[in-house]
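Example for tutorial group B:
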């Protein structure tokens, strides 16, 4: 009997979110059964992978029972477990921001993204690991981690949504929330062999953001396939008047997508191993979806622009924390805050002007293409013990942010991105996942979803289970 229960539980945690949601809506399955299966999976996989900072077992089961007692399904996520990145407030559930300074912090209210997940019937099953305040290439902090790559536990899961990526990749949650500034949902998705969407900034509002018109950072979603990403994105998307960047509609016209590709935007540092895999992926993309033009706009000043804006905003947000608690912060957090010292108003505004010009160059490129493919990281996963990326292919990099060049450039322009794992056959040489970014015009998430579904179906760009961690 126990083996039958275990087998039934495994079938549930391996099930995709959209299919699971359908069964829950039809009352073929209880929300409690879904939560229990995923809690059992978490218990089996943790703490070896260190994906979670906090598991909300009691609260999740209570929420499941309430949903099971409801007279009708609550929403599109009715009864589906969702993991939430620990940078994001959850009412009554510990939220540490990955920092020992907030080890016992319990918010009084949900972030709007979490409130929408719950309004759609989702069940927050726990808070996933992140580097302190989201700063760091390795997903670890003084409370938890490192979060280990499920394909090789010696390697990093990527920062800073590594906990969410590992939770999804291994079946601990069918869906996960993340955040993305320089690549923080895209890189972990690539490293862990899953899908993600970094939406157009404003599609998932951030009404509590101090710099309301800033669009460098956004909430994002992680799942094992495109349809599941779209399910969670739909639950969190929608306008909020307190966010001046908030969007009010989809701009996809339903046309076939003209494709472009770039390995490095002519400006990012990209390893030879990544270039080789990307070339293979573009070949697969072309066979499935038509000709691919090797194109990119001029991006020579993009990384300097990104570094200036990121440093200035980090200094603005965290400078007071450095002054009060500098010795208690991690070295990476201190480096990021200190990088903003001395940036003048002129330098900041010049960077904003350069960002605007870059955006317009991308708009011009997208008159000729509809989707641009690029690698989802400049390097493949590296050992957690190595810490930050200081060299690529043996050559020192200028800063610890440079490995993020292919994602940071897209952050600057605010175009939406679907990240997909490449076909397994392209990564079998060393068994490590590899992902690509698919970039569309602002507001064209639906175009990306259409293309993603096609590539999963016709080109094999699909999640594969990391055998070692699910055996």
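The residue assignment follows.
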């Amino acid at each position: 009997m126990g083996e039958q229960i275990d087998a039934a539980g495994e079938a549930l945690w391996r099930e995709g979110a959209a299919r699971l949601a359908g069964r829950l809506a039809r009352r073929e399955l209880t929300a409690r059964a879904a939560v229990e299966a995923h809690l059992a999976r978490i218990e089996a996989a943790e703490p070896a992978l260190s994906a979670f900072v906090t598991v909300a077992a009691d609260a999740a089961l209570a929420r499941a029972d309430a949903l099971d007692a409801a007279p009708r399904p609550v929403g599109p996520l009715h009864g589906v477990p969702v993991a939430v990145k620990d940078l994001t407030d959850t009412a009554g559930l510990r939220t540490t921001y990955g920092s020992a300074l907030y080890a016992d912090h319990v918010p009084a209210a949900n972030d709007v993204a979490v409130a929408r997940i719950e309004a759609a019937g989702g069940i927050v099953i726990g808070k996933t690991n992140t580097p302190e305040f989201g700063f760091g290439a390795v997903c670890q902090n003084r409370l938890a981690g490192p979060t280990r790559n499920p394909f090789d536990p010696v390697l990093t899961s990527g920062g800073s949504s590594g906990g969410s990526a590992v939770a999804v990749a291994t079946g601990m949650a069918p869906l996960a929330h993340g955040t993305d500034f320089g690549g923080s949902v895209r890189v972990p998705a690539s490293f862990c062999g899953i899908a993600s969407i970094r939406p157009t900034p404003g599609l998932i509002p951030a009404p509590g953001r101090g710099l309301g018109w800033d669009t460098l950072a956004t909430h994002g979603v992680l799942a094992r396939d495109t349809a599941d990403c779209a399910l969670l994105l739909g639950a969190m998307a929608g306008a909020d008047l307190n966010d001046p960047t908030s969007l009010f509609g989809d701009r996809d016209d339903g046309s076939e997508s003209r494709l472009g590709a770039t390995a490095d935007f002519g400006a990012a540092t990209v390893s030879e191993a990544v270039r080789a895999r990307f070339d293979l992926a573009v070949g697969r993309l072309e066979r499935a979806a038509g000709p691919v033009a090797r194109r990119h706009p001029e991006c020579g000043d993009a990384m300097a622009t990104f570094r200036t804006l990121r440093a200035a905003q980090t200094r603005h947000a965290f400078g007071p924390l450095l002054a009060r608690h500098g010795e208690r912060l991690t070295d990476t957090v201190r480096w990021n805050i200190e990088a903003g010292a001395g940036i003048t108003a002129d330098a900041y505004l010049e960077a904003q002007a350069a960002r605007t010009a870059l955006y317009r160059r991308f708009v011009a490129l997208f008159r000729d293409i509809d989707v641009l493919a690029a690698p989802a990281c400049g390097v493949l996963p590296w050992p957690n013990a190595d810490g930050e990326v200081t060299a690529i292919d043996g050559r020192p990099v200028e800063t610890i942010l440079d490995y993020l060049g292919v994602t940071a450039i897209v952050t600057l322009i605010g175009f939406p991105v679907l990240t997909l794992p490449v076909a397994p056959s392209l990564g079998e040489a060393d068994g490590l996942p590899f992902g690509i970014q698919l970039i569309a015009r602002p507001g064209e998430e639906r175009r990306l979803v259409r293309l993603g579904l096609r590539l999963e179906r016709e080109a094999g760009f699909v999640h594969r289970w990391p055998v070692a961690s699910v055996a």
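Confidence is low (pLDDT under 50) at residues 1-5. Compare this with the pattern of hydrophobic and polar residues in the output above.
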